[in-house]
Amino acid sequence: MALILNEEQTQLRDSVQGFLADKAPVAHLRKLRDDRDPTGFSRDLWKAFAEMGFCGLLVPEAQGGSGLGYVEAGVVMEAIGENLTPSPFLSTALLGVTALMRGAGAQRNAELMEKIVSGDLLIALAVDERAKHRPREIAMEARRSGNGFTLTGSKTFVVDGHVADRLVVAARTAGAPGETAGLTLFLVDPKVKGVEIERTMMVDAHNGARIRFDSVAVDADAVLGDVDNGWTLLEGVLNVGRAAVAAELSGVGEAAFARTAAYLRERKQFGKIIGEFQALQHRAAHLYSELEITRAAVLKALQTLDQNFDKAGPIVAIAKARAGASTTLAVQEAVQMHGGVGMTDAFDVGFFMKRARVAQEFFGDAAFHADQLARLNAY
Amino acid sequence: VSDLEAFRAETRAWLAANCPADMRTPLDDDEDRCWGGRKWTFKSEGQRLWLERMAARGWTAPEWPKPYGAGLSREELKILRQEMRAIGARSPLDSFGIWMLGPALLKYGTEAQKQKYLPPIVRGEIRWCQGYSEPNAGSDLASLATRAEDRGDHFIVNGQKIWTSYADKADWIFCLVRTNPTAAKHKGISFALFDMTTKGVTTRPILLISGKSPFCETFFDDVRVEKENVVGEIDKGWDVAKYLLTHEREMISGMGLPAGRPLGQVAANTIGSENGMLADPMLRADIARFDVDAAAFQIALERFGDMAKAGLANPATSSMLKYYGSELNKRRHELAMAAGGSDALEWESERSRGGEAARAWLRTKANSIEGGTSEVQLNIIAKRILDLPGA
Questions:
Q1: Which residues of A touch B322 (CB under 8 A)?
Q2: How far B381 CA sits from the closest chain A CA (Å)?
Q3: Optimal mutation site among A289, A318, A372, interface B, most CBs of chain B within 10 A
Q4: B264/A377 Cβ within 8 A
Q5: Those residues with Cβ within 8 angstroms of residue A136's Cβ, 6 or more apart along the chain or in another chain
């Protein structure tokens, strides 16, 4: 399969980029932040996503969805990155839907799926428990009790957790932290007794939440996938998240770079356009190279998720590691090359730097994924 | 898709039956490569057979159009490479004729030139060298001074080239000469082909920091070159030269691809492992980051091939790939030296295969100089892709 977007995917890219540049550019995020918006994103925009078929992008057509794949999901994520659009697209339409489809089959959750597709149900994924992404270290306890389980523990960095209608929660039904065996995924209604949610506004004005589970009782049918054997399902969902965030980061980096290159072509100092200075030209050309190489890896990761989902681990690690590193460089260069104005809140490039930092951390940073690759290569 | 699957099955079966066993082992060093040519001595019967068999199928130049190459589609070419990789098959032929001159001839050559030069290139019978750089024309290549004087039906060439790779082993040279000394520097250059045994051609190997001499000085003293040996129009050789350079850059960027034993494994052998992890966490991290970049670069090469095929690639992309690939290869060899420790420092012992690791490491330092320095590539990206002013 060629490593380029096909005609339909190119059309999708053009239409979603145009749509977001119009409806939800950086000014949209800025306004949500300045208004201290309690939701953190626009529900109207989410409804528009539903009408365009994005909420059910991955949902099979037979269930009212768009029946598209991860490459198309990545196309949307990249546009979200370019515009810094806050949206539950990742948490609900990608992570939530993947968890439901692979963990329960679309049928069992037909009602939920219908609501997701229409934009009326939000899902959040609760995995991390400490400040760094270490899914093997999950300690949250799910003890068997009666017909179901009792969940106790805490989660952090739960994106859209404060507005979610359902949580996908990874907990330990057996084994010890550090082991991949003994993990189980649960679908939890956050309104049940014992769930305490604290919204944590992040540096990039995007959503996060800390969630405490205090003896939360769930039925056996809350289990997604198999009890004790949830690692493969979790890894699959995480890989979707990693590739999707890599695509978003790619968009963040591209947009930051485009603004920087435009500035280099117009800003004058010493009686010259600053883009004439070779010191800046070489740094810009190097950065361009880094971003282009990342773009290839991200597309390959998305294609692999579509074609060979279970074998996507290594390429997803490569893509997320690359995207984290190259976009970090892009936003640092953006602020530096813009000079003083890049440091001001009134100017937009700072928003790109902030989003890049959060997305770099989300689902494992470049170091985490380089380490993953080393493990996979047995050294 | 079923056609491609059939092609894969057929290719796999043919490779299984025809790739000699000793051509399925990793290259121990550069001496194991097969360059062909009139002066070539095959290192083994396997090497000879492998070249002969692959050439007979056109698979030494698989993507060249028929009748010169095998005319494989992009997808077929990927399958051939995958299947060769799967059995660890070596390249049957390393060749500047295939990597650089051939594409230029296919684009700019006359029918007669194609018929004369391409078949012996594909068969590995004629080895070519590249006469580009001169002592005073390095990064500023277009200022070259080697003079070709018009004598009616032929030129008389006088001048000197330098850094001519394997000039002493080559049979023919593709050479940039100045045919019009009064025109602007890019406009008086022609692209000429001639036999290295022509009277007046001499070469002198240059001893490099690696202790080897892959490059030569090449001197031309009243060398007669027929006009029919000029590729493209006279005085318009710069177009041919630039086109060929994009292929040279792609060739050099290929050095960024995974080659030899994985670094993690090399390091584990010298340093050891603890709990399945390399016992030097700092080196492990450096190698892991390198592996991420090298894997992504390999995918990027694939992507830009696909983009070129679809007419979506900026030609200056070859500069980006050359820049990145050559810097990666230097990084690989720095890490290989760190992984090898003092074992990798031995210069002459049999144990070190004559200092192979150290010599290869030193050789890579030229990667970011040859074919246009990294700085020149960055200039090209800034100008041709980023559209920065005054670049």
A1: none
A2: 6
A3: A289
A4: yes
A5: A177, A178, A179, A180
Complex confidence, ipTM: 0.96
Q: How far apart are CA B94 and CA B47, in angstroms?
A: 12
Q: Which of A276, A286, A371 sits opposite B390 (nearest CB)?
A: A276
- Closest by Cβ to B389, choosing from A2, A273, A367: A273
Sign of CA dihedral A242, B328, A264, B372: negative
Q: Could you say which DSSP state residue B157 is in?
A: E
Model confidence, pTM: 0.93
Residue type, A284: A
Interface test with chain A among B82, B379, B388, by most A beta carbons within 10 Å:
B388
Task: Give the one of A272, A275, A299 whose C-beta lies nearest to B303's C-beta.
Answer: A299
The minimal CB distance from B267 to the residues A3, A315, A379 is found for: A379
Interface test with A, best of B314, B381, B387 (most A CBs within 10 A): B381
- B378-391: pLDDT as tens digits: 999 999 999 999 85
CA distance A255 to A90: 19
The two structure tokens encoding residue B275: 């709990």
Report d(CA A251, CA A240) in Å as an integer.
17
Q: Please give, rounded to a whole number of angstroms, the shortest distance from the CA of A6 to a CA of chain B.
A: 11
For residue A281, which residues of chain B lie inside 8 Å, CB to CB?
378-379, 382, 386, 388, 391
| B268, B312, B320 ranked by CB distance to A292: nearest | B320
The neighbour count for residue A220, using CB atoms within 10 Å, is 11
Structure tokens that stand for A367 in this block: 């170091």
* pLDDT (tens digit per residue) in A77-106: 999 999 999 999 999 999 999 999 999 865
| Residue A77 · residue A89 · CB < 8 Å | yes
Q: What is the mean pLDDT of chain A?
A: 97
Listed residue (B297, B366, B342, A362) closest to B289, CA to CA = B297
How close does chain B come to A25, measured CA to CA in Å? 24
CB contact under 8 A, A285 and B386: yes
Residue A73's nearest CA partner among A297, A208, A246 is A246
Alpha-carbon separation of residue B294 from A40, B85, B94, B257, B301 (angstroms): 39, 16, 22, 7, 11
Are the C-beta atoms of residues B216 and B164 closer than 8 Å to each other? yes
Calpha distance B159→A316 (Å, rounded):
54
Kindly tell me if the per-residue pLDDT of A24 is higher than 80.
yes
Q: Which residue has the tokens 């010599």?
A: B359
Q: What one-character-per-residue DSSP string does A210-274 give?
A: EEEEEEEEE-GGGEES-TTB-HHHHHHHHHHHHHHHHHHHHHHHHHHHHHHHHHHHH-EETTEEG
Residues of B in contact with A373 (CB under 8 A): 288, 291-292, 295
CB contact under 8 A, B386 and A281: yes
H or E segment to which residue A168 belongs: strand A166-172
Residue partners of B225: CB distance under 8 A and separation at least 6: B148, B154, B155, B156, B157, B177, B192, B193, B194, B198
Q: Does A5 touch chain B (CB under 8 A)?
A: no
Query: Which residues are CB-contacts of A228 (< 8 A; sequence separation ≥ 6)?
Result: A173, A174, A175, A181, A182, A183, A184
Residues in chain B with pLDDT values less than 50: none
Q: Closest Cα of chain B to A175: distance in Å?
A: 20
Q: What gap in Å lies between CA A128 and CA A358, rounded to an integer?
A: 14
Whole-number CA gyration radius for chain B: 22
